[in-house]
Amino acid sequence: MKIHDYSKIYIKTGVAVGELIILNMLLVLLLHIYPYAVMSFPSNWVIADRERMFFAVSNMAYLLSLSWTGIVLDERMVFIERVLERVFKLVAFHFAITFSALYFTKIHVAVSFLLIFSCSLFFAFACWRIIARAMVKNYRSHGGNSRRVIILGAGSVANEVYSQLVTNISYGYKFLGFFDDRAVADYKVKPELVVGKLDAVNDFIENNDVEEIYCALPAGDDRKAVPIIHFAEQNLVRCFLIPDFKRFIRKKVSLSFMEEIPVISMRTEPLLKFGNQVEKRIFDLVVSTIFLITIFPLLLIFLGLGIKLTSKGPIFFKQKRTGENGTDFYCYKFRTMCVNQDADSKQATKDDSRVTKIGAFMRKTNLDEMPQFFNVFIGNMSIVGPRPHMLKHTEMYSKLIDQYMIRHFAKPGITGWAQVTGFRGETQRLEEMEGRVKRDVWYIENWSFFLDVRIIFMTVFNMFRGDKNAY
Known about the structure:
Strand content: 5-15%
Largest sheet: 5 strands, parallel
Shape: flat
Oligomer: single chain
């Protein structure tokens, strides 16, 4: 039995055709605005129609870049950050290929024009793919591009798999039933959803066009699935194994192999990959350098003058805090309090008498954190990451909160996921710090470049809006 599903091809083709149309429309528009952007190098080799050659190069560069980056919208579960990341890589490859090809064909295009074109391309492609993603989800919600699935097992793990597959109809799964050998009284699912015993699966596969099987049998019974999986794959049915180890692990993990021995890592850490480390460090260096050269001198003049006029003491405040891998470092801030002996042990509280008037303004708008761009430039902080805590708090909370020290697997940041999701400022109760730690660990396990970008935008928005928890 071979199941023909052309929806995946249609989705990818539709996205690619749409992007080719967008690319060429953008080129037409920009060349109309900048009619002299394209010209030939002084050479004996002069192309008669430079603009037409530019169009050809750009289109070929797109197709080549697309073959490397791919389109993920045909997958069942695709998050916005992943879509934007693919678009960013696509446009970056496109820029590099186009620039190189134009150089070798002796066609000169101003770099500023290529940058404008690439930025426009990124925003246009991003909007198109987000729209296409919504269209695909809507199409699946109405029964299109569906996947016919069965689940082996009727226990608690099988029930959780069922909930994930069926709860969101935009994923496009059509559930056909559970199969299990246990007694009805031992089911953890609705009995009416169980359509048979395990020995009936093969006949069911042949008669119902099953496309995917999820094996969620308990340990000991999973050996019964081996002949079923063999039969299914012979009939071009894809099989997925759901291991029953949720008693021990309740979060995302990664699987690797030591020779032929499977090894499960307790958590995924994208920033352990060298490429991701380089990407994040380059971003930190570029942004911190630009900020320190342009905006920071103005802040230093105006805020420094305000600090000096409103209280005695230095402009900057430095404090030892816990950094990556538990290493201590000096964290810099604009001083927002009168000089006091409790600065290294006591958090700022609401209506804290130690906070100066200009200090309250800086705390409310996050401007007191701006000197930490020096920490970013030096390399002991990142723009985005878990906020660094004073040493006393690290010592105290590491004894009270499970997984507290995990947040130090990454560089601390000027802003972080916890801060933009409501966990900023004073932590009066242990539950508040636990919530912050939970979000810090989630960030470490789910890092992506566009998650950082999202957090930065949310932070800037909160700066202008003001944060009620900042005092």
